[in-house]
Amino acid sequence: MDKLSSIRLEDLPVIIKFILHSITAMDALEVISELREKLDLQHCVLPSRLQASQVKLKSKGRASSSGNQESSDQSCIILLFDVIKSAIRYEKTISEAWIKAIENTASVSEHKVFDLVMLFIIYSTNTQTKKYIERVLRNKIRSGCIQEQLLQSTFSVHYLVLKDMCSSILSLAQSLLHSLDQSIISFGSLLYKYAFKFFDTYCQQEVVGALVTHICSGNEAEVDTALDVLLELVLLNPSAMMMNAVFVKGILDYLDNISPQQIRKLFCVLSTLAFSKQNEASSHIQVRATQEAEVGGSIEPRELRLQ
Questions:
Q1: pLDDT in tens, 142-160
Q2: What are the extents of the domains in the chain?
Q3: Quick check: 32 and 44 in contact, CB under 8 A?
Q4: Where in the cell is it found (predicted)?
Q5: pTM of the predicted structure, to 2 decimals
């Protein structure tokens, strides 16, 4: 632990593996707490190593060298997380100590990107700790210790690690959206938003499918939140949303379960999709939306056009 500051990034996975395998029930919390303090958790790179790497790259001034270095560092980071996943999968003591170390962190400034990554990893790896992690997250969100900027940085820096946990992250988002606390609901909606933004097309499809399920649930708060997220995603990445338009159109079969105000939000989503690009898919949305507006009677065709 004392020598961590002088270890090269490429050697870090081996050292961390040794440390985690040497942990006992007596010293687990102490070791994990010190470990998360000694690492630069924003980039999962030791501070001195990160600064030295930046100086070296600037002095070379070569884009290709920078790209190779970044790729190598990313590989080391992925390997490091694989080592940690393996340790917490087979050692309950380690996962519980890691959650406890995060739970004991009181200051807002002390909460790191790596903390969120670890909560996601443990949530996806150890099913027995899911309720515990949800409770810790809810408390952190209520107290303002974990905010949107931290979540966005987590996805931005470690999306390659998080994408393999897409289904678990969406499961967590679904659970948070069932809350009665608006701050927790908002955090759950952000999980959907950033999963769609940073993950691949398969995950994007899963995100839209999950949001449609919320909309068809009949729960007013869930419906409103899911519709708001859908509209934000349409504005954020209309081409990606167009690929999932079939799921959104399916909501038109459940108009009886949502209020007129919510129907307005839905048609705002559909209209944005329909008229973003004039192609076969968008034309089909235009026809379907207009037919539903005429038959359903909740929104007149003229009113839809005005929106």
A1: 999 999 999 999 999 899 9
A2: 200-275
A3: no
A4: Nucleus
A5: 0.83
